[in-house]
Request: fold
Amino acid sequence: MTHMPRIIFTMLMLAMSMSSWSQCGLRNTAFSSGEYLTYNLYFNWKFVWVKAGTASMYTVQSIHKGQKAYRTSLSTKGNEKADKLFFMRDTLLSYSTLDLAPLYFRKGAREGERYNVDEVFYSYPNGKCHVRQHRQHTNGTHSWEEHTYSDCVFDMLNVFQRARSFNPSNWKKGHIINFPIVDGKGRTPARLVFRGSTTVKADNGKKYKCLEISYLEVSKGKYKEIARFFVTDDKSHIPVRIDLFLRFGSAKAFLVSMKK
Reply:
């Protein structure tokens, strides 16, 4: 019996922790452990679309700091031809609770001569959302920030997965979902805008009825479109095509294969 108070205390603390992060959660209805998606990448080079490499996204149930979590990784790789024009290697990693509350985010971005690493560490004390944010700069220096918010904040990979479980049945063209986004050095207002429905042909030769959704962030006081997603019009909302509006131009990704 001597251990009973400690066990009860531990259970209470665990319940309080789960209650805190559940406020930032969302029931996952779109994907399951083991989902693997692959894409072909194309860059716009002097008004010509060039096959530039590949991308892949993999989601699996894992463990993060002793609790069950989804681990999602997204990586891009340019081919030799693209590397001569512009060298790009991006690797993103996130952990989320099974109800999609964010736990950890990392992005390593090598674009030309620039290489940054962003990290976000989430915790949920006393019903708040606390983030520790880290950035490793190209010159090797490091910067850290810590913030506690009364609302929920998200990273770009977590939002990407969360949005797949949204129910768009009552959305009309122009429907907006606002949310705050965080990275290694700050918090930025962001939003999703529903553009309507369309048909997209993937690089596997198949055509899919898709929902078209823009992702925008505030830049210099105005919302700027960062990406546009074309996701299957079903409960899985598989991204079939992704348009990326980059600092150095634009890129597109087309689905090649999927394993659900």
About this structure: DSSP finds three helices and 14 strands in the chain. The radius of gyration is 20 Å. Residues 4-22 form the longest helix (19 residues). The chain has a mean pLDDT of 89.
